[in-house]
Amino acid sequence: MRKRMLMSALGMGAAYLLRNREAREKLFRTVQSFVGKTKRRVR
Question: How far apart are CA 28 and CA 18, in angstroms?
């Protein structure tokens, strides 16, 4: 039951991001910022 709920939540989130361009771009900027900070620490 929990797995089904998790998959439904992921599907709804993906559909939201596909429809909402601003939310998608904000998410990508956040991820890129985080990845950029992580890469700087590793060096």
Answer: 12
Check if the beta carbon of residue 5 is closer than 8 Å to that of residue 12.
Answer: no
CA–CA distances in Å: residue 5 to residues 8, 15, 16, 39? 5, 15, 16, 34
Give burial (CB, 10 Å; 0-12/13-18/19+) of 5: exposed
pTM, rounded to two decimals: 0.56
- What confidence score (pLDDT) does residue 35 get? 87
Q: Which two tokens stand for residue 20?
A: 């909402």
In the chain, which ranges are E strands?
none
Residue 38's nearest CA partner among 25, 16, 30 is 30
